[in-house]
Amino acid sequence: MVSNWIIMVSGMALLIYLGIKANAIASTDDEAGFLLGGRSFGPFVAAGTIMATGFSGWCFVGCPGVVYEFGFTELLANFFFGLSITAAILFFGNYLRRRAGEVGSLTLPEYIRQRHQASENDPLGRVTQGLAAVINIVLMIVFIVAQTKALGLICSEWLGLSFNVAAVLMLVIIILYTATGGLAAVAWTDVIMVIGMTVGCIFILFQIFGDMSMSTLVAKMNEIDPELVNPSSGRPYGEPKIGPFLVAPYAFMFAAVLPYMCVRFLGVREDAKWRHIAAISVPLGIVLSLIPIVGAYVRVKAHMGAIPMLESADMAMPTYLSNFMPGILGGIISLFIVFAMGSTADSILQVLSASVSHDLRKALSGKDDHDPKTVRFINRGAVVVMGIIGYIAMLSAPPAFLNFISILGTGTLQAAMAGPVFIGTLWRGNSIGAIASMLGGAITAGCLLLYSDMGWVVSPLIGDLVGIVLYVAVSKMTFSINSRAGEATAVSA
Amino acid sequence: MIYGSWVLTSFVICNILLIVMTAIGYYFQAKNDKDNR
Question: Does residue A448 sit within a domain?
Fold first, then answer.
């Protein structure tokens, strides 16, 4: 336990140090310093922060549990995150960065407004930014509840603290460096975290394949149940075998339109090459997508009698660490798992607070004449306040819905953003189309997630489709009463 | 099929696809940058 504390304090001290270093960028008079890291991210930082945020704690804790229960289908499904995030970087990030740069957007809700408003004085512009901000705030609070809860659960066991104390401790550290250094701190700390996650993953793979070859692992899984190796259905992604493949379009939209993912595209340096970002992402994605193999290894070891059968599949990774990664190595890998969760939590907190401090402020006041010091104070204060609100919301959230509230938050937000952000970047609609798309997409995905059994992949994808159709159809029908921004302001689309 | 499993075969194919996709994207973006210079 003492060694775990030493590892934790060292790791967290490094993150806070990076937050303090990033303060130089965050404290410039330009608000882009705090909200977009001064648009300073080179290929290495951009690739590291995108991959760290995309591969959250779910990859380290949830996925091995799914492999333990359902077999290698999850290995395939999880891989699509690496593939699709790289595709989003390679084929979409550049367009989003350029369009947002043309109009000077600092956040996704602001981008939606500026991309669609007929003119600076268009009242629908403020409505669009306000609506996008409110949707983002509501759904990201839902998501940060899940992330804080997951962090609390892991850290309480790792450090021997009560759940509440562990959750507060982690949240305070994340608030500290995010409020100090803004998106630059989040991105830099993400890079450290993704290096840790990748190293941890390599350690684990060395241990597993040092003990048994891949062919032995597959043969043993086949002995337990052939369905684990060559399933007759796509379970747990539905009965048809196409189920796991649908994770590919889901993960592409996840990377391309979710504000806490794609805001990083806006922070990329103008002269950075997107192909370099993609090339750095590929090895990270390939290594991180192998981590679910832990679930198969634990299942085989339990079948061989080396460890007892698990009471819950979600215990696959903790059981692996306590039985096969003893001592200081297990402690270091636990830190990397905390990193994986922290890299997602800090991103959500940053985007959430930017929606409150920047987007709501602009949507409500309609002007931006505050002095830079006041704006910085508002931005930093919002990080602290939203962190506290996230903690309070977590305390009052129902206990058993950790995964479901994550899915509800991200799936619904993705469907709300698909039309105005994804299609809006490639083809310009108008404000009415953007508003209809956000509402229609969010309501569809939210209702399907809450009231149908379509699952966490298909429901958001249907929401995306509804949002996209509404965006194009409503925009085309209303161009006569609400012109495109390009037509009114002569900004080329 | 690799290890007699459509899931593991798809996994390997998709890994190759990722590398090929990135290589093609890399090549065309580099070519585009060169043409625009």
Answer: no
Asked if A75 has any chain B CB less than 8 Å from its own CB, the reply is: yes
Residues of B near A (Cβ–Cβ under 8 Å) read: 1, 3-8, 10-11, 14-15, 17-19, 21-22, 25-26, 29-30, 33
The values of phi and psi at residue A292, to 5°, are -60, -15
The Cα A334–Cα A330 span in angstroms is 6
Q: What is the chain A residue with the closest CA to B19?
A: A282
CB-based contacts of A246, cutoff 8 Å, min separation 6: A237, A457, A458, A461
CA–CA distance, B36 with A25 (Å, rounded to integer): 31
Residue A159 lies in domain: 2-402
pLDDT of residue A334: 83
pLDDT of A470 reads 97
On whether residue A119 sits in a domain, the answer given is yes
Residue A492 has pLDDT above 50, yes or no: no
Contact A11, A332 (CB under 8 A): no
Whether residue A105 lies inside any domain: the answer is yes
- A419-459 pLDDT per residue, tens: 999 999 999 999 999 999 999 999 999 999 989 888 888 99
Which among A71, A83, A275 is the nearest to B30, CB-wise?
A: A275
Contacts of A153 (CB under 8 A, 6+ apart): A163, A166
Question: What is the rounded average pLDDT for all residues in chain A?
Answer: 88
Kindly state whether residue A132 falls inside one of the protein's structural domains. yes
> Which residue segment(s) compose the domain that B23 sits in?
2-36
Burial class (CB in 10 A: 0-12, 13-18, 19+), A238: middle
CATH code of the domain covering residue A321: 1.20.1730.10
How many structural domains does chain B have? 1
A299: exposed, middle or buried (Cβ count in 10 Å: 0-12, 13-18, 19+): buried
Are A218 and B14 a contacting pair at CB < 8 A?
no
Percent of chain A with pLDDT over 70: 96
The H or E element that residue A473 is part of is helix A455-478
